[in-house]
Amino acid sequence: AQLVEFGGGSLQAGGSLTLSCAGSGFDYSSSCMAWFRQAPGKAREEVASTDGYGRATYTDSVKGRFTISRDNAKNTLSLQMNALKPEDTAMYYCAANPSWSRLCSGAFAYWGQGTQVTVSS
To answer: Is the pLDDT of residue 29 over 90?
Structure first.
């Protein structure tokens, strides 16, 4: 299995950025897919997830600003990030949890290499 992220970069606060993730080698359509992030010196946190039914959940700090979406035909996952803040600065990771139930439960089995997002004030 493989996950590859694209789209990180550096930008000023208030800007927008879209991250993408391409998955292969596993049953993508039934998988729970998620974006995590980890800032220096901080624990990794789950930013957003979408289950095999396309239902999305978000951590409170990004609600209303970030949108997660998936294309099961292309095995891709996206994270549209708007109104970015300096505190969004982190390495962002795509993760997959193949699940027969299509639900988001349990540990994530596959991880991408990460893409850096840096937001300056």
So the answer is: yes
